[in-house]
Amino acid sequence: MSHVESVNVVITDLKALEAACARMGAVFAKDKSTYNWFGVSVGDYPVPAGFKAADLGKCAHAIQVPGIKYEIGVVPARNPDGTLAKGLTLLYDFYGSTGRHDGQKLKRHFGDGLTKLVDAYSFEALKAKARAQGHLSREVTRADGKIELRVSVP
């Protein structure tokens, strides 16, 4: 059983992704060429658009969470026709919640569709862009627990 899903995000800043991983208690494994997943596509779930079953499990980098066996692959993005697109994207297997199949643990940690990780990446990329433009930024935790980024010109 494999249930590999791609995430609707284009990664263009690896330092921001690494910072987002650290923010989420994960480890960015730079240059790791494989990510842990079920290990084979058995045809019970569609392979993400633009990818082939043979592409699954291969990556440019990986994201690991201590205590979770499955990993997230950081892979070159693909167009629906299989040609390479701009940047990188994320692939992960969400199958299983016990034993050696713990994809659901990734979903619980990062949110459905890895939305929490995507939000953290966007936040870190925005901070980096503000710094690059010479702006000052600071994080403020609101009463509802959400974090906002306040950017100002020095």
DSSP summary: helix tally: 3
* Total beta strand runs: 7
Rg from Cα: 16 Å
Helix content: 10-25%
Structural class: alpha+beta
Biggest sheet, strands in spatial order? 1-5-4-3-2
**Which series of helices and strands comes N to C?**
EHEEEEHHEE
Report the uncertain regions.
none
How many structural domains can be distinguished in the coordinates?
1
Ends apart, CA distance between termini: 54 Å
Largest sheet entry: 5 strands, antiparallel
Shape: globular
Question: Mind explaining what this structure looks like?
Answer:
The chain has 154 residues and is α+β, with helices and mostly antiparallel strands. It has one domain. The protein contains three helices and seven strands. It has a five-stranded antiparallel sheet with strand order 1-5-4-3-2. Helix 1 crosses helix 3. The chain is globular, with a radius of gyration of 16 Å. The mean pLDDT is 93.
Give a short synopsis of this structure.
The chain contains three helices and seven strands. Strands 1-5-4-3-2 form a five-stranded antiparallel β-sheet. The protein has a two-stranded antiparallel sheet with strand order 6-7.
